[in-house]
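Most newcomers find our protein records easier to grasp once they have seen one. The structure tokens are whole numbers drawn from a learned vocabulary of backbone shapes. The record below serves as our worked example for the rest of this section.
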Amino acid sequence: MSADLVLLSARLLDPGTGRILPHTALAAERGRIAFLGDDRDARALAGPGTTVVDLRGAVVTAGFTDGHLHPVSGAERTMGVDLSGCRDLAAVRTALAAAVGDLRPGAWLRGWGLDPNAFGSAPVATAALGPVLDGVPALIDLFDAHSALASERALELAGVDGPRAFEQGSEIVCDADGRPTGLLLEDAACEVVEAAASRPTEAQIRARAAEVLAAMAASGLTGGHAMDANGDSLAVYAALEAEDALPLRLRIAPWCRPEASDADIAELIRLQGTGGTLWRVAGVKLFMDGTIDNGTAWLETPDCHGQSDHAYWPDPRRYTQVIAELHRAGVPTATHAIGDAAVRHVLDAVEQAQAESGRTGGTGGTGLTGSMGGGGGTGVVRHRVEHIETVPDDTVRRFAPLGVAASMQPTHCCEFTRADHTDNWSRRLGEERAGRAFRCRDLWEAGARVVLGSDWPIAPYPPLQVMAGARHRRPADLSLPPHGPEQALTPLQALRGMTVNAAWAAGEEDRAGRLAVGHRADLTVLADDPLRVPDSELAALPVLLTAVAGRVTHRAAEV
């Protein structure tokens, strides 16, 4: 049988070692790397249906995998007005006024990417936006996707006129007189207004998701760990794959909320391993806290506003029970934990689950039965902590012995915090805790498996930008000094964070994340060696070709 893909005149960069392999050609067959050798022998493997590409010295490496993103829910969320570039309230008002001018009478205005730093020292509230939203039903997501601002008309349509109690750590923020300010904290509160808002059609969501995924492939991504299955996400993945329009390999972790019943958890366990050829449910996503910017994180001591003093789960002991049940079933978990108390509790829960069951999170194992993996087929169950924004030394040292992956998003630090601690995140934490921000290097040196991702749509998804942020700890436009430069990763560490370590976290290190015969032919081709490109130039390095399972999903005009 002839090869499906042959790449010639290439420099083959193995992210496991950081070395250029002593070969110039690669051939893929049936979705796997079948040959590494010289151009002449590779050409002999080509047949009439083979895609043959002469790369003229370009660099091939294992395909980039984003360790944390939200493809379908993010596609829907970003269909509104983009406020992510607005640095002050004047810019926010201008952007919203332009969007209001384009609305049909009575239509809802949706927005996303609103940075609380734009409010300066003023409270995050609808009143700060002035009269631009008067009479307009508007719901605007803040950048973290854990909070939103609703206009007066939106609150009226949703029947919100005061505070409410929720079964999770959520809040409709009200003033001293009990009137809603428009700020909605966490999912349950946001969903009250979202239920009244208009939504795009299924066809519109599917088209937007296809557009986003194609752009992700063009950025060099071959895969992603999707941290939700909200709405009709799974149906969207199935439809796109049926249309041959799914260009990424996706590993999906549906949410488990505090109000989940035993039957709900049993259903999450049943879903494991279901999916298609390129997408598969493999894991469960949970939340231990919210965000520091909102005052909904869980810190050992409250923030400077007296907030962030409790867990997202009203009874954290129930979370521990759920982790134990999922662990016994061989289901890997990914828990959003930002504050020091939240991270500590997650590690405590994993440690207790391992002790009770005898199943570890060690370095061996190949994961769930099936092609996507998951960490449960050989007695090894690999859990993860997502975000880990501020933790002390003793917590850093606990990850490696427990085999818990540290899933980090360095662009959160680069884009939303400041080295001088004048940003909202740092002001809330105070100097000591803000000084231990996003400890990527410390976690790596303590032996933790650091997995890098974007958390798109919270931050941009291009993997070279994510790796650049991990290396220089500065905004993409390099306009500010680095925040915590001592926490920067080396070029090889950053590359491994989106290849080798992402495969390990998925229990797939025996078949993904490296350039080796028998490994998946998920490949990213770059114009130059990313390990030798300066940190400040890495994000602009051209992506020439992307392939998933040996099928080209992006090809630049010049190759």
Notes: The radius of gyration is 23 Å. The chain has three domains: 5-63+519-555, 66-72+200-505, 82-194.
